[in-house]
Amino acid sequence: MLPTTARRRARGAGTGAAPRRAGSAGRHLHAGRLTYGILLLFTAGSLFPLIWTAIAASRNNQRLAETPPPFWFGGNLFSNMATAWQDANMGKALLNTTFVAGSIALSTVVFATLAGYAFAKLRFRAKNALLMTVIGTMMVPPQLSVVPLFMAIAELEWTNQLQAVILPMMVNAFGVFFMRQYLVHALPTELIEAARVDGAHSLRVVWHVVFPVARPAMAVLGMLTFVLAWNEFFWPIIALTQDNPTVQVALTGLGRGYIPDESVIMAGALLGTLPLLLAFTVFGKQIVGGVMQGAVKG
Amino acid sequence: MREAGCPVPADGGRERSPERRGRRRHRWDARFSPYAFVAPFFVFFAAFGLFPLLYTGWASLHKVSLHDPTRMEWVGLHNFSRLLEDDFFWNALRNTLTIGVLSTVPQLLMALGLAHLLHYRLRGSTFFRVAMLTPYATSVAAATLVFTMLFGRDYGMINWGLGLLGIEHIDWENGTWTSQLAVSSIVVWRWTGYNALIYLAAMQAVPDDLYESAALDGANRRQQFLHVTIPALRPTILFTVVVSTIGATQLFGEPLLFGGSQTGGGSHQYQTLGLYLYEQGWFDFQLGRASAIAWTMFLLLVVIGLVNWLIARRLNSTGK
């Protein structure tokens, strides 16, 4: 522990560590070897199942039924992916899910920003009661809506159609709360008042003042919603079939013995996860920031 | 505050009238636009949340077949009384509770420890945070498919590793405890990092002078963690407990795909309430019974919510 403390002093003096933290006593110590060791262990645990998915997807069924299990990549990745793409309908599933998750993310962000702005900055009757209602709706589990929704789509003949999985998810209470928390601090009330004095009506204020200020939070909320919508499971497997699946529906088909080849199953799982993993490598920092930001006030 | 007519000039000559009309529109706009902004949320929630909630309650009092869902036959509380006599219901309830505890407790404890470590000054802290959040980006389906292979009886990597330690192969899927442990491990894997980041955010919000004064009082690092960090995190911990409990009550995808069947194993050993609902509704074609299960789950959540609230109130009153 001692050497690291010394190093901290040296580095802190050399680089001029972040001023906000420089004065803090004892809390933000440099991590020791043990800390790094444990963190690396958990990182490995977090990444290993994903890496092994790729390894298994690059092998064949025979190799996966041998001991010891494979620890390195084989040569069948692309042929397995091609099989999953066609036989398990993963191609269509990816296209469908991109459209579904994109629509849901877009509508959630727009509606959450409007409502979040109203709750953060505007005065109206029953505001607090309405905000509490929004938060209360988070308690309602999705199981409580599947039976009526199923009856409704049967009546409308929407079974197997994408709007059946988009419409029920177009708004989300977490989003409203998230945008409210952001705008309370980020949007100066004087800015709104100045725009109003200039004669701007409320939609203009939203478009020219609120949206520009909210943009970083909107981006983060969009990404978080996209991830959740991409991974939505319960309702899509009831509303859709293998003919017109989302990724999760197609993976469910794989898991329920639709295709017996394990390496193809893993290739499907990899295909269905890859887009989000790519997004994580590019926007990981922002997504982490969003999760932490949304958490501060629970 | 916005009584009609006060700021409008009284004269209102003809050449001023467009301005006046504009001003009235302005006031009208300021008054009603907030409602317009929050309306989409409430309209959608009413249509896809509240109405289904109530209608599920109505359907739970009827016999409804999946094949002809518009024909409802009144049966009163029969679906509920039948539920209470069904061993599989009690089995699913028990499994939901044990899997819930097995997944929630280790998950939150590990997350707390990890957050503590991530709170140190770290090289590559972004890397650690992103890496620990990647399981969150992995869908339930993809994660369960991989874990099913890892927990395989004959060729699974976990049994192979245990074999190296001289432990006999375990039939994870067919045992009650082993299968529940395996299903829980998927939940733990997916959510530990996410919760760690939530705790980390809360830790960063703890003012430094609290630690300074604790250090002045002679508290060592461990005591600081126990007596400063944990109390400051209490609301956050409560929040994560509530969220994880809600998630555990609804557990569905993991047990469905772990064995690939809605029964949750050959002897229903890891069938959860969510899975039981799905089986009753979509494999036994009894939507009325499925609705009764859904409402039972909802009542369960309300009870859990109340208990949580009571505990929180007690903690707050003893804490201050």
Automatic annotation (TrEMBL), chain A:
SUPFAM superfamilies: MetI-like. Keywords: Cell membrane, Membrane, Transmembrane, Transmembrane helix, Transport. Residues 1-11 have a biased composition (Basic residues). It is found in: Cell membrane. The chain crosses the membrane at residues 34-55, 99-120, 129-153, 165-184, 205-230, 264-283. The keyword Ribonucleoprotein does not apply. GO terms for cellular component: plasma membrane. Residues 94-283 form the ABC transmembrane type-1 domain. Signal peptide: none annotated. Residues 1-24 are annotated as: Disordered. One of its GO terms (biological process) is transmembrane transport. It is a multi-pass membrane protein. InterPro entries: MetI-like (IPR000515), MetI-like_sf (IPR035906). Belongs to the binding-protein-dependent transport system permease family. This is Cellobiose transport system permease protein.
From TrEMBL, chain B:
InterPro entries: ABC_transporter_permease, MetI-like, MetI-like_sf. CDD domains: TM_PBP2. Gene3D superfamilies: MetI-like. One of its GO terms (cellular component) is plasma membrane. It is a multi-pass membrane protein. The chain crosses the membrane at residues 32-55, 97-118, 130-152, 292-311. One of its GO terms (biological process) is transmembrane transport. Pfam families: BPD_transp_1 (PF00528). It is found in: Cell membrane. Residues 93-308 form the ABC transmembrane type-1 domain. Residues 1-23 are annotated as: Disordered. Keywords: Cell membrane, Membrane, Transmembrane, Transmembrane helix, Transport. Its main location: membrane. Belongs to the binding-protein-dependent transport system permease family. PANTHER family: ABC TRANSPORTER PERMEASE PROTEIN, INNER MEMBRANE ABC TRANSPORTER PERMEASE PROTEIN YCJO. This is Cellobiose transport system permease protein. It comes from Streptomyces qinglanensis. The lineage of its organism: Bacteria, Bacillati, Actinomycetota, Actinomycetes, Kitasatosporales.
